[in-house]
Amino acid sequence: MSSKKIVVIGGSAAGPKAAARSKRLDADAEVVLLQKAPELSMASCGYPYYIGGNFDERNALLATPTGVVRDEGFFAAAKGVSARVNTEVTAIDRHNKTVSCTDVLTGESCSVAYDKLVLCTGATPRRTPIPGIDLEGVRSLSEMRDADKLRELVDSGKVKDAVIVGGGLIGIEVCEALSESGMNVNVVEMLSQLLMFLDWEIAKLVEKHVASKGVTVHTDNGVAEFLGENGKLTGVKLNDGSVVPCELAVVAIGVTPNAKLAAEAGLEIGGFGGVAVDDFMRTSDPDIYAAGDCVEITQRITGKKTYAPYGDLANLEARVVADNIARGDKHKFPGTVNSGICKVFDLSAGATGFSEQRAKAEGYDVITATNASPDKPGFMGAKLLVSKMVADAATGRILGFQCVGPGEVNRQLAEAAMAVMNGNTIWEVGMADLPYAPPFSLAIDHFITTAHILDNKMAGQMTGISNAEVKERLDAGEKPFILDVRAPNEFEEMRLNVGENLIPLGKLRNALDQLPQNKDAEIITFCKISMRGYEAQRVLEANGWTNVKVMEGGIMGWPFKVEM
Amino acid sequence: MSSKKIVVIGGSAAGPKAAARSKRLDADAEVVLLQKAPELSMASCGYPYYIGGNFDERNALLATPTGVVRDEGFFAAAKGVSARVNTEVTAIDRHNKTVSCTDVLTGESCSVAYDKLVLCTGATPRRTPIPGIDLEGVRSLSEMRDADKLRELVDSGKVKDAVIVGGGLIGIEVCEALSESGMNVNVVEMLSQLLMFLDWEIAKLVEKHVASKGVTVHTDNGVAEFLGENGKLTGVKLNDGSVVPCELAVVAIGVTPNAKLAAEAGLEIGGFGGVAVDDFMRTSDPDIYAAGDCVEITQRITGKKTYAPYGDLANLEARVVADNIARGDKHKFPGTVNSGICKVFDLSAGATGFSEQRAKAEGYDVITATNASPDKPGFMGAKLLVSKMVADAATGRILGFQCVGPGEVNRQLAEAAMAVMNGNTIWEVGMADLPYAPPFSLAIDHFITTAHILDNKMAGQMTGISNAEVKERLDAGEKPFILDVRAPNEFEEMRLNVGENLIPLGKLRNALDQLPQNKDAEIITFCKISMRGYEAQRVLEANGWTNVKVMEGGIMGWPFKVEM
C-alpha cells in the first residue's frame, strides 16, 4: 500500500473535489488541503442569489445538502482530509517537493511536503487602472467576503444607486440581485452588447428585457473615472462624458487565472495566462496537477486551448486529477464546449458551442438559423424561446446554439450541449428522439425545429435574412417590400411600423396582385415567429418571385422597438 | 415541373405534416388529405389535460399557436392542401393507383387517384373481450369524441368513482385528470408495476406518489368482468375476486396499428402488426409511404424493428416521407430510442433507451446505477430526482436512463436521450460540459453524477445493491448488518425501521468497534441519497471489511414504507 502525500492548494470548488476523491480512491494517502480564505467549499456561483435575498442563511453556501457546514472538522471526519484554512501557500519548492505556507492570521509560516501536488488556485477579478477604483464603494464579487459585504449593503437599505461595470455573466447576475433588492441599477459595457457568448441580435433581446425591469444599460461605453468625495464613491463618469451618480459600483469585467505561484515555481504558463496542463491535467512537472479557474483547457470543437473558468468544469477537472493520481495517468479531460446559462429576471439565457461571430473568428464558414417559437403547446401555458443555431456550412455540423426567453431554455441548452459535444449535424438533430409530452415540450421540440429551419435553408427551400440586417438596410434608406403575413388582430396588437404591408398568409394566394409586379423585386416576409413567413416565401416562389427572404425569428425575435 | 398527385390518408399528426410539407417542397403538386374524423391536426396528446380541466377551450386542441383552427379552409388557404374530413378510405387499388373513399356522413363513395400515397392511418385502442366491455360507461381515449365525452362526464360532476384499466402512459395521464377533477380513482394493472418503461423499483416510487394522491393502485391484477345494471356500468370485478364500484371505466391497455387497409392492399405487414417500411419510410410498394402510429420503425440501439406510437416520432417520420417524395428517396428515418416522459401529479417520470429489464431481455449484460439527489442547490429550492442508468457492462455504453421525481426531470431525460442516440459511454457523459448555473442545475449535473456512480462501480470502487434486493432478503429472514450513516436528526425524521444501525459518517472512523468484528460479514450502508453510504463503504474497506455494499438511492430511493 502506498502512503502517498497529496497536497491540494485551494479550497473552493476544484480543490475540495480533488482532495476528497483522492482520499476515497486511496485510503492510505495523506491528503492535505490548504486554503487561504477562512471558508471551504463555497458555492460561489450562488453568491448573487444570496446577495439578492433569494435566501438568508449564509451557511447554505457552505453546507452539504443535509445542512452540515463543510469546515475543517467536516473534512477531517467525513472525508478523511486534513484541511487548513487561513493558510496561504507562498512558494513551491519542486526540488524538495515542499510548499511554504503562511498563516494569514498569525503570520506564522510552515512547510508541507508532497508526493503529488494539485494547484487549484482559482482566479482573481480583473481590475483596470481606472482613476478612483480604490474608492470605498467600488467592489467586485469573487470571495465570500465580497458576497458578505454586498449582502450587508443590500440589507442596510442605504444604497439607492448602483453601477455594474461589465455586462457579462456575473455582471448580469449581480445586476438582477441589486435591482430586485430595490436599487436603481445602471450597467456599463464597453462592447456593443451584453453577454458576449450570444450574438448581437440575441443579446439585444436580453438587453430589452433588462431595460424593461428599470435597469439602464449603457453599451459601447466604459468607465472613465470613479468619482468620489472623502474617499467614498459618489458616481461614475462614463467614456461619453455622462455621469451616473451611485454609492456602489461592482466591477465585473472578467477574471484572470491565479498562476503566479505556478509561474514562480517555473511551471509552464499558457497563452491566456493560465497554468498549462496536458489532457491528464498535469502541469509541466509530472508530480504537479492543476484544475479549476487557474488552468487553461481544451476547446473541444477547435482542439485549441482556451480559458473557461466555470464551476462545473472545475469539478470535472478535479475528478480527472484525483483519478490520475490514484490510478496512474490514464484519465483524460476532454475540455469544454463553452456551455453556459444564466437567469436574467424572467428570462433564461445561455449558449453552448460558438456564436456566429465567434465561429467566424475561428475561421468557420457558417450557416445559421433563428427560431422564435413556444416551448410547449399553447394550452399548456406556452412561453417563448428565441434560439439561434450555428452550423458549419460545408458539413452541417452544429457548432453552436444560443437560446433566450421566458420559456424552458434549460432543457434546450442541455440537449444542444450534448449535440455539440458529439459533433452532431443538423440532420442528426433534426431526427432526434427526445422525450415529449405536452407539459414538457412541443411534439417537435424547439431545438429540433431550429435544425429543420437550418435544413430548409441548406436545401435552398428557405432564404433567410437576419432582423439586424433588415434594420440596418431600412436605416440606410433601402425600401425592400416588407410583407407581414400575420392576421389583422395580431397586427393590431403589435407591429414593426417600418412601412410593412399586411397580407395574412391565408389570403396571400388570392392577393398576389398586391405584391410588386416585378418578379425580381426583393420581398422580405415575416410573421410572429416566421413559420408563416416561410410558408409565404414558398407560395411567392411558386408564383414566380425570385428574390424572397424570410426575416428569421419574426416579430418575436425583433430586438428593436415595436409599435403596440 | 411535376404535377404530382399526392394523397395522404389520415389527418391527425403524421398526415397533416406529410401533406403540408409535401406542398411546401413541391408547389406544383396536388396534395389531398383524407380524414375519417371530423377534425384535423388534433393535439391528441393534450386530451388528458383537456379532460382534467387544465383548459376549457376545446379548439385549443385544434388551433395553431396564434389561435386559428386547422380546418379544411385553413389547410386550403394556408397550406395549399385539399383536406377532406369525414372521409373514410375503404380500399387501395395499387394497380390503378386510386383509393376508394366513403363520406361517413352521407354514405357517398368516391375515388381519388394518386401518384404517391401516404398511409397515416394511426392506431386503435386495444380492447380485450372482457365480459361487459360494451356496457355504457366503459370507454377508451383515442379520438377527439372520446375526449369530448370524458370532459362532459367530468363537467357533469355525476361520476364519483372511476376505474382506469391499464397503468401505462395514457392510463396514468387519465388517472391524474380524473382524480384532479374530483373523482375517486382506482387503477388496475395486470403487471406488477405501472409505466413499464421504468424498472420495478423506480415505478414503485411513482406508484407511491399516485397512492399519496388518494388513488388506489391494483397491480398484478386484471379486470375479470365489467359489472352493470340496465346496460350501464356499476363496477369492475377484478381477477382477485374483489369488486370496485364505479360509473366510469377507461380502458387504456395500449394500441394496435391500423394496418388493415395496407394489409388488404397486399402491403407487407411487420411482426408487431404494423405497416412494414424501410429506412425511407417506404412500404413494400415504392409508390406508397407510411408514417405515424400505423408503422413499425427501427429501434436505434438494437437495429431491430419495434412499435413506437408516439406523436413526436410521427411528425419526424412524416417529414422524411415528404422529403423523399419531393426529392427522391434520399432521406432516412433513423428510428427511436424509446424516449418518453409524463407528468404524474407533482412528479415527472420518463425514460430513454432501455430499462434494466428490457436491456436484459434484449440480451445485454448490463451494469446499473441508481442516483437519488437534488436537481439544484438547496438554497435555490432543490427538488429530488431519482434516476437509474443502465449501461452495457462490456463497453460502458449507456443503454438507457430513467428519471422520476418532483425535480427537473425534463432536462435530464433530454440530455440522456441525446447521449443514448449518440452511443455515448458513461465516461463520455461523465465529462460532459453542460450548462450550469444555480437556478438550473447542480455544478455536477445529476445525469453526470449518475454516470460517475456507474464509473465508480465499474472501477470496483463501489459495490451497490438495489433496494429491491435488500427488501427481498430482509423479507426472507436474512440479517445483513444494515448501516445508516445519516445524522441523528435525519434518522429521527424518517427511517427504514428494518433493524438498521445508526452511525453518522463523521463518527464512523472512531466507531469501528460497533461494527461486526468478522471482517467478512456483509454490511449494507446507506444514507439519504447514498453519497455518504458510498463514503462509508470506502472507509470500511480501508479498514479491512471485505463485504460492504451501498444500497443505491438511499432512503430517498426506498420504494417501500418508511417509518416517520
TrEMBL record, chains A, B:
The keyword Oxidoreductase applies. It comes from the Bacteria. GO terms for molecular function: oxidoreductase activity. CDD domains: RHOD (cd00158). Its cofactor is FAD. Keywords: FAD, Flavoprotein, Oxidoreductase, Redox-active center. Gene3D superfamilies: FAD/NAD(P)-binding domain, Rhodanese-like domain. Belongs to the class-III pyridine nucleotide-disulfide oxidoreductase family. This is FAD-dependent pyridine nucleotide-disulphide oxidoreductase.
